[in-house]
Specification:
Layout (H helix, E strand, L loop, with lengths): L1 H26 L14 E4 L21 E6 L7 E4 L4 E4 L3 E3 L5 H20 L60 E14 L2 E3 L3 E18 L6 E30 L2 E31 L3 E14 L2 E6 L6 E5 L4 E4 L13 E4 L4 E3 L2 E13 L5 E11 L4 E3 L8 E4 L9 E4 L2 H5 E4 L2 E13 L14
Antiparallel strand pairs: 1-2, 1-5, 2-3, 3-4, 6-8, 6-23, 7-22, 8-9, 9-10, 10-11, 10-12, 10-13, 11-17, 12-15, 13-14, 16-19, 17-18, 18-23, 19-22, 20-21
Amino acid sequence: MKTIKSILIAATLICASAVSTMSAQQAAPAQQHQFKVAIGDSVMIKTECQQYCTGERPSTWVWDKVHTVRQLGTKRFADGVLLMNIYSWMCEECLINVNGHAQESAEKAAVEQAADKQAAIDAGLVKPDPVKPAEPVKEEVVEQPKEEEIVPEEPAIVATDTVKHEPAKGDSIQSEQKFKNNYDRFTIGVRGGASSLLHKAEKGNWTCGFDALLDLQYAHYWAKDGRPVDLGIITGIAVGYQQSGLKTVVDDAYTQSTEVGPVDYTIKADEVKETDRNIQLEVPVMFSLIHDNGLFFNVGPKFMIPVFTPYNQAISNNKNTIVDAYFPDEKVHVMNDAVTGVLGDDQYKLSGTDNGVQFNINVMLTAEIGYEWILKNGNSLGLGAYANYSVFNTFKNGATTSDDLVTLTTPPSTASVAKFNVNAATKSYADKLGFFDAGLKLAYHFNFPKKLKQVAPEEIVP
């Protein structure tokens, strides 16, 4: 009888245990990983953990901050924990539970307490609890939020070199947002476009040319928490080439006394075309604005230093008449004769390194505007337009601008040939020279420290 009673008691206990286990399994959420943290717990990231579940390396500031658990596990990261505010998945083994319920410690304490009680029963010091019919244990099922229900409530992380998070209202966890540090950058750029010396000449018109330059620049930027625009200053050096031209005609008339009496000279040319070139250095001192959305604007003075200024010139005359000498006493015209001066074949096309203009340091006002993209490596690529204009004319003519393009020296009494010289058109006709150029610029920026690419909440991969 006693044996039958013991068997009935054991069977009752086995049934109760089975019912309790089945109830717990039905109530527990279907998860592949048993988490030791809960939603709402405060956690910190271990310093030895160097990457998120997605593989990206965290910023250095995240290790020193307390984060709030937003979601536990996902299809892609079964043991991942979604941290509020930074919206990043981190493996649970990389987290330290600051004030949550440590399930492992609670289970260990319960096991130790049950073992102590059983030992006391076996020693006869404590009577066992009366056996009661087991009832299904009702456990409150805590539904985990579905992945599609996770709607980030925080603003996008701003593209800055270092980002922190502001304290969120109604959250007991102190988090910070939008904290930006100052940064430096080194730039390599190329630019090209239209250019001209803007000749101011009564006997000619300037023609537009082109320029091409290489820019090497250094900049420092000041960034401020909550301000979407970074302020900076830019300097550096640029080296390049530019050219422009001057077109004119020649129709000069003057009277000159000779040993045989007065002579009326007329010098004509259908077209004179001169091209002025310039190898130059530029030193900018510009102020810069960069918006978080990528737009930039640079403005300031620039000093242009001419290094080498070659030129060439071509004269054309379809009528083949350059010099006409009229002797009024004899009423005779003499054209292209040795006595009046003859233009040599080598004088129809001239070239040289000195066009008679004194090229001093030129002060220009420069402006640049465009857009830049943050690359994955933290550097930037910029594309924009530029323009430079002389604020005052520092290109001065070294001689008087009343000189004729073609000068004639009559033959002395001991000779029978006149001397015929051709001058540079810029020297003869341009009394003022300004400088202007405009075009496109492509630049690659090395940022120190690296800038972060803008990440919107909807881009987070669960």
